[in-house]
Amino acid sequence: METKSCDRCRGETELTLIEAVGGEADPLRITLKNLPLLACQQGHHQFIRPQFGAELLTHLTQEEEPGLPAGEEKGFFKKKYLCESCGAELEPKPDHRHTFSFDIKLDDIDPVGVDLSMPVYRCSACAKEQLHSQKEIRKLTPAALAHAFEAADIPPPPGAI
Ligand SMILES: [Zn+2]
Ligand SMILES: [Zn+2]
After folding, report:
1. What is the mean pLDDT of the chain?
2. What are residue 54's phi and psi, to 5 degrees?
3. What is the pLDDT of residue 156?
4. Is 71 within a domain?
């Protein structure tokens, strides 16, 4: 990876890994693990490349994450959610929170770990626990991710997001 100077002080930067940093958009909480970023001597943080935040967001909102059980949203005015296994209606009230963990693989870096914590709902027929819908997660993801970047002290790069 080529070296890049700090956007704020022009100092030299080094590749650093943030062990874990999280952001919330109620009720979704996203924790990023082993998030790579560039840090300078002054402690300024920036993405390893300007579009990195957008790449992560695109991945999280446009690709089916494996191992993320989610129902299907039906209805327009009054929404209901159907079980991904048997098609029966999911309970309207969440059962408990569950944390789903998976890795995101982007170009030129080691996989970034993602913990996604959300209430899960039980199917009234087969008892499988799942998220209400992928769509619901995707709506909340941009804000949760923005808060995680804020918590990691990474300002949005000029012109991005
Ligand atoms: Zn700096
Ligand atoms: Zn079911």
Report:
1. 92
2. -65, -35
3. 72
4. yes
Nearest Cα to 34, choosing from 95, 140, 106, 82? 106
Cα 94 to averaged position of ligand 2 atoms, centre (Å): 15
Q: What spacing in Å lies between the alpha carbon of 47 and ligand 1's midpoint?
A: 12
Element (H, E) at 143: helix 134-151
Domain assignment of residue 51, yes or no: yes
Look up the pTM and report it.
Answer: 0.88
Going from the Cα of 33 to the center of ligand 2, the distance in angstroms, rounded, reads 32
Cα dihedral: 161, 113, 30, 48 (round 10): -30
Domains contained in the chain, number = 1
Give the Å distance between the CA of 101 and the centre of ligand 2. Answer: 22
The answer on pLDDT for 109 being more than 60 is: yes
Domain presence at residue 89? yes
Cα dihedral sign, 138-142-143-144 = positive
Distance 46 CA to ligand 1 centre (A): 9
